[in-house]
Amino acid sequence: MDPKFKRQMFAGLAASITRWVELALEWRVPEYPAILKQQLDPHIPSNGQLISIAAPLATWLPRDARRAGTKKHDYAMGASMYSLPTLLKQTVVEAIVAESPAGVGDSHRAASPYVTEAEQLPFQTDIGY
Amino acid sequence: MLAGAFGTGIADMALEAAFGYGKLERTFPFILIHPLLPPVDDFLVCGGIPLALLGLAKATRKRSFIEAAKGAAIYGVPELLGITLFRAINYLAGQPVGQFRIDYEFPSTNLIREFNIDYGFPTTNLVRQASWMDKQATRESKHSGDFLPFQTDMEI
Fold it and tell me: Mean pLDDT, 10 residues at a time, over chain B (156 residues)?
């Protein structure tokens, strides 16, 4: 297998694991910070999801990463190829779910059972849980 | 490569958005083949598109299709593995939301199957199937102000 492709795949896997483990923590750890479970707006993913999806893009920060042909560039490209479509997808899906007619997509409106009513923002109070 | 990754991501987004907007639970391809595995639509998009692009590349012998297939794989494979990991974590967390039976139909064969699935994926686009009874219980408990049925075994 092409070593460049291997590095990109590795970065994509790391980005994916970051994103899904964060989501699992968000839903399964009662002590998980409430601010990360909240959404700034119902049309965008929760703060924790935004951070975990966008964090791998920090691989572009090193100067080497911006120079084509380096290993860091491959890692940054791999992370971007997973994170950018995921960010786009998740934002559009949240927006569509938020705009869906009442009663449709109940299962999508689920808030974490660990988010108490007091922790929810006003627009979250109508979420189906 | 970016085109392949974004193409796969957009196809995935379209299916997730369709599922999120409409009541498509229990309809193909939004069905589970196993509680620990991603739903079929994710397999079709994240696994099918890279393979289809690879097939196109072999058929047409165009380098661009190979690059697109690599991009699609870099999005698709981690997504499939990530969803599997997420479902496994939820499953191993003790299924605090309980199990219930779900039946669904394959439109082609009208084959009804029942699975015990973990209704433990209360995120926006991951709950693939929900029973009518569970929804009713949710609504009732919301109005009564009590804990939801699946919360009874949690320490809050």
Answer: 92 87 73 80 94 94 93 96 86 49 33 37 39 52 49 47
| Residue showing tokens 């692009």 | B53
Cα B33 from Cα B31, distance rounded (Å)? 7
Give the Cα separation of A42 and B107 in Å (integer).
34
Query: What's the DSSP call for residue A80?
Result: H
Q: Quote the CA–CA distance of A105 and B130 in Å, as a whole number.
A: 10
Residue A119, Cβ neighbours under 10 Å: how many?
A: 15
**pLDDT tens across A7-53, in order?**
999 999 999 999 999 988 887 788 889 899 888 888 889 999 999 99
Which residues of A, range 84-103, sit inside 8 Å of B by Cβ? 84-86, 88-90, 92-94, 96-97, 100
Tokens of B143: 């109005």
Q: Please write the tens of the pLDDT for every residue from A46-73.
A: 999 999 999 999 999 999 899 998 999 9
**How far is Cα B18 from Cα B90, in angstroms, rounded to an integer?**
24
Q: How close B135 gets to chain A, by Cα (Å)? A: 8
CB atoms under 10 Å from CB of B43, counted, come to 16
- In chain B, residues with a C-beta closer than 8 Å to the C-beta of A16 are 78-79, 81-82
Q: How far apart are CA B61 and CA B40, in angstroms?
A: 29
First to last CA, chain A: 47
Is the model's pTM score more than 0.90? no
Give the SS3 label for residue A44: coil
DSSP states of B9-68 as a string?
A: HHHHHHHHHHHHHTT-TTSTTS--SSTTSPPHHHIIIIIHHHHHHHHHHHHH--HHHHHH
The C-alpha R_g of chain A, in whole angstroms, comes to 17
